[in-house]
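Lab channel / #folding
Pinned by the channel admin:
"Please post every new chain as: sequence first, then the structure tokens as a reply. Keep commentary short and put observations after the output so the thread stays searchable."

First post following the new format, from NK:
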Amino acid sequence: MNEINTWEKETIQKITVAAEQAREKVRQLLHKTEDTIKQQLVEISMELQEGKVEENYVESTLDRWKEQLNEYKQRLESSNVSVSVHSKQIDWTTIIKVNGNQSDNKSTVEKFHSVLGNVRLEDNGLVAVQSGSNWSEVRGTGLYSSGEHRISLKIDKTRLKQIMVGIISSTGALNVTSYSSKSSYGWYCYDTRAYLNGVSTSSYYDGDIQSNDELLLMINCDENKLSLVNKRTGKNYEIPIDIHQAPFPWQLRLNMYDTGDVVRILV
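Reply from TO:
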């Protein structure tokens, strides 16, 4: 909003300056016309004075002066300046754009919300704590259908790394084993498996995630792909998403298993 407000103020200032410059130019042109006619009237007045002194008025001279005076009168009455404003050529609908993409250095505002299983949410939905040794599902509040969205996560604590991180179509019902859903995509921290449309594969991950790792999950709706960056190792994992299997909108999805495992959303 600050960028829009700044653009509005600057645009109004530029328009005000342009309008004042145009007014000044109109005044100058009108003054120039008036000055020219004044000079010509002075010349006629001088001729009249000379004719009066010499008493040599002739009818043709009087007619000429009369015609000139009528001409000057018409010029004064009709003197105007043509002003053309080309604002119609400006497409105001495209002069400012609002892009739904998140900027490169900002994370999407996200929180944990929906839970199925033994997960407890803390810190106003920013922390998910697994409290039982069985699978649970946690989903975020965000719904993603366009643009790129970045979610920063931290594995605060994990014993056996039995945590799954990814996305799922929001239309699917909560399920403690939602990682096997056809609309589910993501990574299993425990080993080298990634899940694409609910099917495990070992082609997109090397298993190098541990406690205290900070992860950047990037959801790219425009290019239909999901990326995971481990800040400790600098490794970037990427998987394609089949939108026929996982229709929009997408949601953040976690599956957790071991008691005491903790995942945090960083803000």
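NK: The longest strand covers residues 148-157.
TO: also worth noting, The radius of gyration is 39 Å.
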